[in-house]
# Entry
Amino acid sequence: MPKKVRELKAMLKKGGFSEHSGKGSHTKWLHPLYPGRVTLSGKESSDAKPYQEKEVIQAIRIVEQRGSG
# Structure
């Protein structure tokens, strides 16, 4: 069962990312230890796309690795 967009946003907040608004339903998420940004689109109650879920998990993993190193 896919996660909801709001769940991915909660994961990013917990990982230390900060939210910046984008156009329409898009939000940009930035972290000082992550190169680039994570962009999420969709309403909070929408199912997240598989690629969005993978991107969020990968971004959090990278930040954790850089933070502990």
The chain has a mean pLDDT of 95. The first helix runs from residue 5 to 14. Residues 38 and 55 are 7 Å apart (CA to CA). DSSP finds two helices and three strands in the chain.
